[in-house]
């Protein structure tokens, strides 16, 4: 049969339609009027296909459960949650406000004694959920057990899909300690991501930094939110939960006490911050350490009893932390009987050290007699480092270096300039599976790494061109250095092997994570020490891998059409 150009165009457009995707997304109870969309068919019938994303949903008592409803072709549906045993059977109208084909219904299993208003919500602010009938009240948090789920396209219509919802007992399961820089205020933390992006796990907290307790488990978040009255803070809601708004003082407890004396820190609405991740069952309790005792250990315990309704028997977790002074030190070597910071007469001259202050804190590094006045940021391991240019400075020169800032006590040490560092590298053409490459020989005067860059390095992409890095190499000559690539090559091409320093002396490659500030290349005669080679992948020979993993269906069709592989014939 002849394939006309119009037929080819129709096939192409159909392929584009097949490739289109719908992206799903989870506010407060509201209402919306929906409309049913029409689908073209032999009888032009109304689309009635609605359903649940999964067959089974699970949550712990006190959790905010998620029930995902799919609405392809319609903007509203009706969901019933039913248990004959507990006489709980509310029906909800859910509306897909952003027409993405999905609504995530949120059910606060701790708030059901308060009725449907506080109990139900949605995961995406564009969507809405409205209680339309049935019994939505319980005398205690939603009882554990099995609940039947049903979804209908129309109120009172036939059931289109069913699923099961199981509610069990939960409780606290983990308690961890993190720290965040004292440059932040308690009010700066409002979301789970803000906490994680600004804190780091440790049990050693510098006085003046924030201590962050991560309480993991199930059933806790919904209880806190259910205790939050209109206009009240989460902190007050948490204290109400601990103090049992209903008058039962054996519901839950949180204690922060000195290990030596047992003296407890009284928590008030103003001296801690609570961050709740409602759909991930985690609570962050953030406390300022300004008023805690230096060089003291504090024990922290959280527990809930069966009176809370979350657990069927008392369960608790604990953690501890120690408050330490704010200090910063240089990495030094013993030289002429005294601890001395060592640096080198080259463009990659560096000073580094460690500190007790939280990651993200900023320190200032200065030196007399040399051009050094830099602000550095403390990394995840509480190390710091700075790189500067000492090209032309005579080997054997001495100066004094100082670190200060972020409330640390100013620390100064003598520094010695040694002869500039040298490196050489030998890298030959080779064939591999694209997962690994081998550098023939590298000589690093003070140790470091060999880094593999792809051809985009030649276009100035110094960071994004990094494909892989060797393990830390000690000073001296290394032969046949095999490097496993984090981003393998799909096809062959021109690649570069480059020698890099370990400027902060932590034996971890930080060039990419520091955006080129740390672990800079060895430089000789103003040029990075490197060697280029051609890589063949599985016999592919040279060439760019630009279109490797990204050569998709649309591009394939375009290529076939352009290459004449689909013949066009006239009748």
From TrEMBL:
Segments forming domain DUF7827: 50-152
Residue ranges of domain DUF7282 in the record: 423-534
Parts forming coiled coils: none
Source species, domain of life: Archaea
A GO term from the CC aspect: plasma membrane
Assigned keywords, A-Z: Membrane, Signal, Transmembrane, Transmembrane helix
Signal peptide, first to last residue: none
Species of provenance: Halomarina ordinaria
Residues spanning the membrane: 547-568
The protein's name: BGTF surface domain-containing protein
């Amino acid at each position: 049969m002849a394939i006309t150009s119009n037929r080819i165009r129709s096939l192409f457009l159909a392929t584009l339609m097949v490739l289109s995707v719908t992206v799903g997304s989870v506010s407060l109870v509201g209402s919306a009027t929906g409309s049913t969309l029409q689908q073209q068919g032999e009888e032009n019938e109304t689309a009635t296909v609605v359903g649940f994303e999964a067959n089974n949903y699970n949550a712990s008592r006190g959790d905010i459960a998620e029930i995902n409803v799919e609405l392809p072709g319609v903007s509203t549906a009706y969901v019933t949650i039913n248990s004959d045993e507990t006489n709980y059977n509310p029906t909800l109208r859910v509306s897909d406000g952003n027409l993405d084909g999905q609504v995530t219904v949120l059910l606060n299993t701790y708030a059901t004694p308060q009725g449907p208003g506080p109990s139900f919500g949605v995961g995406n602010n564009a969507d809405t959920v409205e209680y339309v009938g049935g019994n939505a009240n319980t005398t205690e948090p939603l009882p554990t057990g099995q609940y039947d789920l049903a979804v209908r396209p129309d109120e009172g219509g036939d059931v289109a899909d069913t699923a099961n919802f199981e509610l069990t007992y939960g409780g606290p399961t983990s308690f961890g300690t993190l720290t965040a820089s004292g440059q932040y205020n308690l009010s700066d933390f409002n979301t789970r991501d803000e906490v994680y992006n600004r804190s780091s796990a440790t049990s050693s907290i510098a006085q003046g930094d924030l201590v962050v307790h991560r309480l993991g488990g199930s059933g806790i978040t919904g209880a806190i939110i259910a205790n939050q009255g209109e206009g009240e803070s989460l902190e007050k809601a948490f204290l109400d939960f601990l103090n049992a708004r209903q008058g039962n003082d054996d519901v839950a407890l949180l204690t922060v006490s000195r290990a030596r004396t047992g003296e407890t820190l009284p928590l008030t609405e103003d001296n801690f911050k609570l961050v709740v991740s409602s759909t991930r069952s985690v609570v962050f309790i953030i406390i300022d350490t300004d008023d805690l005792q230096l060089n003291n250990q504090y024990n922290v315990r959280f527990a809930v009893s069966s009176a809370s309704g979350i657990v069927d028997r008392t369960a608790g977790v604990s953690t501890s932390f120690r408050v330490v002074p704010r200090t910063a030190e240089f990495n030094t070597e013993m030289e002429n009987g005294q601890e001395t910071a060592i640096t080198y007469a080259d463009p990659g001259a560096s000073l580094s050290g460690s500190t007790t202050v939280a990651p993200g804190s900023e320190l200032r590094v200065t030196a007399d007699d040399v051009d050094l006045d830099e602000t550095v940021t403390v990394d995840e391991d509480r190390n710091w480092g700075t790189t500067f240019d000492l090209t032309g400075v005579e080997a054997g020169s001495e100066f004094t270096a100082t670190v200060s800032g972020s409330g640390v006590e100013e620390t100064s040490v003598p520094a010695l300039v040694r002869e500039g560092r040298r490196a050489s590298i030998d890298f030959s053409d080779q064939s591999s599976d694209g997962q690994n490459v081998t550098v023939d020989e590298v000589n690093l005067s003070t140790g470091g790494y060999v880094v593999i860059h792809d051809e985009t390095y030649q276009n100035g992409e110094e960071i994004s061109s990094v494909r892989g890095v060797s393990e830390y190499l000690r000073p001296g000559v290394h032969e046949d250095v095999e490097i496993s690539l984090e981003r393998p090559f799909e096809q062959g091409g021109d690649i570069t092997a480059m020698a890099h320093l370990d400027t902060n002396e932590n034996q971890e490659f930080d060039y990419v994570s520091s955006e080129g500030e740390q672990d800079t290349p060895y430089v000789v005669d103003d040029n990075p020490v490197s060697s280029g080679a051609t890589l063949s992948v599985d016999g592919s020979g040279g060439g760019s891998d630009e279109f490797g993993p990204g050569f998709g269906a649309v591009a394939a069709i375009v290529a076939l059409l352009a290459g004449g592989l689909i013949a066009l014939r006239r009748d």
